[in-house]
User: What shape does this take?
Amino acid sequence: MIGSWCNVRLPKNRTTTAWGPVPHTKTITTVYDRLTYGYDRKKYTRSYPYPAHPTRYPIRKREKVVILMLRKHGYPMNMIAKITMRSTSYIYRTLRTAILRLCLRPMDMRKLAHSIRMRTSWQRWRKLVNIWMAWLPFLLGEEDKPP
Assistant: This one.
């Protein structure tokens, strides 16, 4: 499929993309370097560029404070990551630093029953989505106190 490397399906009559003409085949060159015990090695080169990395949002000044406060209110890492649009590894590093500096104690929900964990996670997510608009002005620096 033409254009599958960037998850774009092009019409049949179109031959160009934003990066230039659509390559129909990869360029194949034969390398004579005798590294493969008597066989000539074929080297495949890409005739179109890799797609650009998606834009990264800069870290805001109060973002780590919001992460710690949401964690103190009992929200798990995956919900905080989803609502702040950050990776779970970034959230984990922030929380681990706070735990090591004794600003936060670890939260363990493994001993609860599965149905209780699922029900509380759904209720927490609904509540977090509802109150997130109140947290945004504090996160962006428009207000001085958190909600």
User: Anything to note?
Assistant: The longest helix spans residues 114-140. The beta strands are 16-17, 20-21, 27-36, 39-45.
